[in-house]
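Q: What does the assembled structure look like for these inputs?
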Amino acid sequence: MKKFFQIAYIALILLFIYAPIFTLVLYSFVDSPIVSIQEVFSIGFSFELYIKLFNDAALMKIVWDTLILAVVAAVLATILGTVGAIGIFYSKGKFGKGVSAASRIPVINAEIVTAVALVLLFALVFPESRSYFSLVIGHLVITTPFVVLSVIPKLKQMDANLYEAALDLGASPFGALMKVVVPEILPGILSGFMLAVTLSLDDYIISAYTKPAGFDTISTYVYGAMAKSNANSSLPALRALSAIIFVVIILVVIGKNIYARRRTER
Amino acid sequence: MKNEKVISQKDFRPEVNMKKRSLRFSRSSLCLPYGLFLALFVVLPLVLIVFYSFTDQNGSISFDNFIRFFSSATTLTTVIISILLALATTVICIILAYPVAYILARSNLNKGGTLLMLFIMPMWINFVLRAMAMKDLLTLIGVFGFNNYVNVVIGMVYDYLPFMVLPIYTVLIKMDKSYMEASMDLGASPLRTFTKVTFPLSMPGIASGITMVFMPTMTCYVISDTFGNGLITIVGKLIDEQFTTFQNWNLGSAMAMVLLVIMLVSMWVTGGFKSEDARGTNL
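A:
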C-alpha cells in the first residue's frame, strides 16, 4: 500500500514535468497556428512544421549561432576556469581566497544584476554598441565559476604527492601539471565543460543585455516571439525546434546514464 | 609575504631555492588570469552599480534614487508582489519536492539512478522553451488565463522544481542512517523519527534549494512576462525597464543594489548554499 502511494506520487510529479514536453512534441506534428484539440482532427499529423523549420533560413541561423556561441563560451570558460581552479587550489595566500570569493559572486547573484552591471561596464568601454565580444564575456562570467566549482573537488580528491613525485622524477612544473594533474582532474574538467554548454544554451537575461543588435540566441528569439504574439500560442515552427531539442537532450542524458552504468559495472 | 621570508632564509642553498621558487610561482600564479578576469568583469561592474546608484543623472552624489525607490507606492507594491510570488513558488516547490527526494533516497524505486535522472533532466533543457511548452499545455487544457498570478506560480514551479529536488535528495542520500535506526530503537514512531530526526537533518538541503529557487523567482521576469499576460511586474522587470525603456541607469542601479542587499541577507539567513548542488555539478 505504501509502495502504491509512493509510485502514484512519483508518477504524478513526472506527469507534471513531462506532460508539457510531450504535448509540444505531439503538436510539432500538427501544422496549425494554435495548440488545440480540434486542430488534431481537422488538420492531422504531418512533418510540415519540420519542413518549415529547416527552410526558415533566419531560424536556422539562430540555431547555429546559439550552438557556436555555447561551444566558444564553454571552451574559453573551461580553459580559464581549469587554470583558475588549479591556481586557487594551490595558492594559500589572500589573493587565492579573494579570487575564490569573487568567483562565487556570479553564482549567487541575481542574473539581472550581473547583466546590468555588465551593461554599465560595456557602456564605458564600447560607448556606441555592444558586440559579439561583449556577448562572449557575458557568457564567460556566468559559466566560468561553474567550471571552477566542478574542477576544485577533483583537485581535492587527487593524491597531493603525485605532483611532487613528477617533479622529483625530473618533470618541469608545467610538464607535471599537463601530464599528471590535468589527466587526474579530467572528469571534473569535462563535466565543467558540459555544464558551461548547458548554462550558455539556457541563458536568456545575460544574452539579452550583452548581445549585439540583430543577433539572436534561441532564448532571446523565443522570448521575443512569445512577447510579440498576443495569441496564447507559440510560433508553430518553434514547436518543431523545441521538440528536436527536447529529444536530443533526453537521448544525451539517457546515453550518458547508460555509459556511466556500464563503467561502474565493469 | 611568508613565502618570501622562507626563501630568503634558504638563500645559501641556491639549487633548492630555485626549484622551490619556480614551483610556487608556476602554481599559485595560475590564479592571475582568472583573477584579472573576475576583477574586470565581475568586481568592477558591481563597483559601477554602487557608483551609479549613489549619483544622479548628472553624475553628482545623491540619495535620490533610493528615496524614489522607497517612497514610490508602485515599486513597493512590486517588491511585495515579487516576494509573495517567490514565497509561494518556494513553498510549493518544497512541498512537492520533499516527498520526491525522500522516496528517491529511501525506497528501491530509484535503482541505478534512472528516476533521479528523469527528475533533474529538465535542468538541462532551455528554460524559455520549457516555459513555452507549459504555456501551450495550460492553453490546451483550457486553464490558462483564469488568474494571472496562478499562471505565473505554475510557470515558476514548473521551471524551478528540479532545483529543489536535487539538493534535498543529496542531503537525504548522504544522511547517516544510524541516526534513524537509533531513534527507532529508542522507541520513537516512524512519524516522530521523521519530524525529530530526518527532517531537521535535511534542513541544509532545503536551505540550499531555497537559495536556488527564491532569488531567481523574484528576479527572472521571463516567466512573469509570458505567464502573466504582461500584467504582472516583478523586481527583475523593474530593473529591466529602467535600463531599457526609461533609460534611467541610476535608478536601475539603485534597485540592483537593493537586490544585492536582499541576496546578502538571504545568504546570511539560510547560511548560503553548497555550490556543488547547483545544477548537479557532480552528477
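The radius of gyration of chain B is 25 Å.
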